[in-house]
Write a structure and sequence with these properties.
The chain contains nine helices and 20 strands. It has 352 residues and is of the alpha+beta class. It has two domains: 220 residues, P-loop containing nucleotide triphosphate hydrolases (Rossmann fold), CATH 3.40.50; 108 residues, Beta Barrel (OB fold (Dihydrolipoamide Acetyltransferase, E2P)), CATH 2.40.50.140. It has a six-stranded mixed beta sheet, with helices on both faces. The chain has a five-stranded antiparallel beta sheet with strand order 13-12-11-14-20. The protein has a five-stranded antiparallel beta sheet with strand order 15-19-16-17-18. Helix 2 packs parallel to helix 4. The protein is elongated and about 75 Å long. The structure holds adenosine-5'-triphosphate. Pfam families: ABC_tran, TOBE_2.
């Protein structure tokens, strides 16, 4: 079949997957572009691993079609696909050395011993594993095993690599380093990466596009920026970022809330508005414009700033990101009331 380079590498069309009566994936339509780094993200049980396993050929769709490079793959078994899968506990061959594990795929393809050793060494070097080639797998740390698994999958230079939470067993510092390794490799090699994770920081740090899944369906697809600043639904707004949601009927730029009328930049009608925590200002005195009163609950250090938690009189939780100096100046105590305010043009109106 003719397959122009501009057509997506992968097309899911109305893909449905049921386990008995349980529907894990519903009417999934998804295009994966050639050479992109796509992250599938969502809470536990949302169907992201099932979606990836269908792409790898480890599960067959109950209905619908999956094409790779224009070819319908529904009935093509995993070993007839060029879609290696790397996952957290990838079973490396324990009876083979590190380099023998990495060489394995090349051996299966009949590559000469000299060439496969050279190619495997290049990959061990890239994965900072030079010097470990003769170790047994059980003599490696979890992080080292994971890098062997990546080297083993990439040594055959596949068109697409599938990754299922590959970094979840690694120490935090190694995760950051491996994120850098993975994104650099992906761009250098031009391989399409499909990466399943429940970690927002991982997905947003690495992916060109992120797919947010919930209850077996796609909630939103977009760049990290689009999803972070423009969540389409309450589900996405609650799952990503640190968002506050304001809901109520809007008339002539004023939303009626349990706290009274609040100015908003939104058309008339019932609306849900997202105010990101990093766009909320905390003050003791009432500011001009959009603001509400809330009691301080607690604070949490979060790398880029401090997240302060508040509760409004009607029981809604609000989050505001503040700097260390600002927190020291405010010196909040539990139960104290503050004003939370924001620039109403810096908010986002959700579609649904
Ligand atoms: N082989 C199976 N038999 C029965 N149910 C299954 C099977 N595989 C998955 N499921 C169910 O399908 C749903 C989706 O599972 P899936 O593994 O795709 O979720 P996930 O989003 O990857 O979650 P997690 O992050 O926890 O791995 C879950 O409720 C799961 O229990």
């Amino acid at each position: 079949m003719f397959d122009a380079p501009s057509t997506p590498l992968v097309q899911f069309r109305s893909v449905h997957k049921a386990f008995g009566t349980y529907v894990a994936v519903k009417s999934l339509d998804l295009d994966i572009r050639r050479g992109e780094f796509l992250a599938l993200m969502g809470p536990s049980g949302c169907g992201k691993t099932t979606t990836l396993r269908m792409l790898a050929g480890l599960e067959a769709p109950t209905s619908g079609s999956i094409t790779i490079g224009g070819r319908v793959m529904n009935d093509v078994p995993p070993h007839r696909r060029d879609t290696p899968l790397v996952w957290q506990s990838l079973a490396l061959f324990p009876f083979l050395s590190v380099i023998e594990n990495v060489e394995f795929g090349l051996r299966m393809r009949g590559i000469s011993p000299k060439e496969r050793r050279e190619r495997a060494m290049v990959w061990l070097d890239r994965m900072a594993l030079a010097g470990f080639e003769n170790r047994r797998i059980d003599q490696l740390s979890g992080g080292q095993r994971q890098r062997v698994a990546l080297a083993r999958s990439l040594v055959t230079e596949p068109e697409m690599l599938l990754l299922d939470e590959p970094l979840s067993a690694l120490d935090a510092h190694l995760v950051i380093r491996m994120q850098g390794v993975l994104t650099r490799l992906q761009k250098e090699l031009g391989i399409t990466f499909v990466y399943v994770t429940h970690s927002q920081s991982e997905a947003f740090a690495m992916a060109d596009r992120v797919v947010i899944m919930g209850h077996g369906e796609i909630e939103q697809i977009g760049t990290p920026q689009e999803i972070f600043r423009g969540p389409r639904s309450r589900f996405v707004a609650e799952f990503v970022g640190r968002n506050n949601i304001l809901s109520g009927p809007v008339t002539a730029g004023i939303m009626q809330t349990p706290q009274g009328g609040i100015p908003v930049s939104a058309p008339d009608g019932q609306r849900d508005i997202v105010v990101a925590a990093d766009r909320v200002t905390v003050s003791r005195d009432r500011p001009e414009g959009a603001a509400l009163r809330a009691a301080f609950l607690s604070e949490e250090f979060a790398g880029t700033g401090i997240i302060c938690y508040f509760e409004t009189p009607d029981g809604a939780e609000w989050k505001a990101q503040v700097g260390e100096k600002q927190l020291a100046a405010l010196n909040p105590e539990s139960g104290q009331d503050f004003w939370l305010s924001w620039d109403s043009t810096n908010t986002h109106v959700m579609e649904r």
